Amino acid sequence: MRYPLWCKVGDAPPAVPNYNDKRGFHMLITVLPRPWRRVACTLALVALATVIAPSGFAAPAAKALRLYILDCGTISPMDPALFSLKKEEIKGDASFVSPCYLIVHPKGTLIWDVGQVPDAMIPDDGTEVVNDRILKATRRLTTQLAALGYTPKDLNFVAMSHYHADHTANANAFAGSTWIVQQAEYDAMFSTAQLGIRTPDSYKDLKDAKRITLHNSDHDVFGDGSVVVKSAPGHTPGHQMLFLRLKHFGPLLLMGDLYHLPEERSLDRVPTFDFDAATTRTTRKTVEAFIRQTHATAWIQHDPATYAPLKKAPAFYD
Questions:
Q1: What is the rounded CA–CA span in Å between residue 217 and residue 220?
Q2: Residue 151 confidence (pLDDT) above 60
Q3: Cα–Cα distance between 264 and 89 in angstroms, integer?
Q4: Are residues 100 and 115 in contact, defined by beta-carbon separation less than 8 angstroms?
């Protein structure tokens, strides 16, 4: 191993050690007995390498399934009528949250939903950015991943609940991952037809990405039943959900946009902008039966009341 000049022994140390300066470290080294100086330098270099190593390199392999919840912004209050509800029928003001989720499994990683404001629009100083008038964010998705030791290229799989703009903003960053998507959703995403709530530029790089294409079917991502993409059409043609079997938390269903508000669920209301309301209702009946069968906790992803008490990254559920 080659040692930097400031690890050379035998020179006189500076008069006053500065712990933020290499000469200060030099003094700390030179006051040690000579046989220990090289050992101290070696340990310091190892520590330095750890600090400057790429974040993805530092990510430890998971010994058990983990779920990290990431902050991908909020949505300004919307008209409850869009969800076939009246103001007096709901709690709150019909504002929403838009989380993203990182799933870390011993066999790989999956990002679920990828934000509503492109990272390129979000500054580093925490300033809130507003996209499309109502979609807000203060934190970059990639920065949050980096804090956990990952870059987009480190992630094995990407999947989104559906193609609406509040779920796809950073999809292009994951074009190197294997994309898990329903065929009906893929067709809608790249259709030349005029479809609302869609921003094709945000996911254009996925068009020719490696993908697992599903046909109104479920997919066991890692082959052990612990992470399953579940078909749930209606809100969009190929809307899907994510089911997790966490060892300590228990079974959990991330519901995508099957519901936006709890009152949709309790009052049997379907948003006016769903692709097929009848299919949504059929899917909901199937999903409610699945929840009863598995005893799963079901999270309405956009619901602020559901989201508020949850642990956020770097904390996790396992």
A1: 10
A2: yes
A3: 10
A4: yes
pLDDT in tens, 10-20: 333 333 333 33
Please, are residues 83 and 77 in contact by the beta-carbon 8 Å criterion? Answer: no
> How far apart, in whole angstroms, are the C-alpha atoms of residue 70 and residue 280?
27
CB within 8 A of 101, min separation 6: which ones? Answer: 67, 68, 69, 70, 111, 112, 113, 242, 254
Name which of 224, 63, 238, 229 is nearest 157 in CA terms: 229
Domain formed by 66-307, architecture: 4-Layer Sandwich (3.60)
The confidence score (pLDDT) of residue 59 equals 64
Amino acid letter, residue 37: R
pTM over 0.70: yes
CA 95 centroid distance within chain:
20
Structure tokens at 9: 């022994």
- Give the start-to-end residue ranges of the domains of the chain: 5-52, 66-307
The HSE-up count of residue 64 (CA atoms within 13 Å, CB side) is 9
Q: What is the pLDDT of residues 261-288, one digit of tens each?
A: 999 999 999 999 999 999 999 999 999 9
Strands, sheet with 135-137, edge to edge from the N-terminal-most edge strand: 96-97, 74-75, 135-137, 129-131
pLDDT tens digits for range 219-255: 999 999 999 999 999 999 999 999 999 999 999 999 9
Copy the structure tokens of residue 272.
Answer: 């006016």
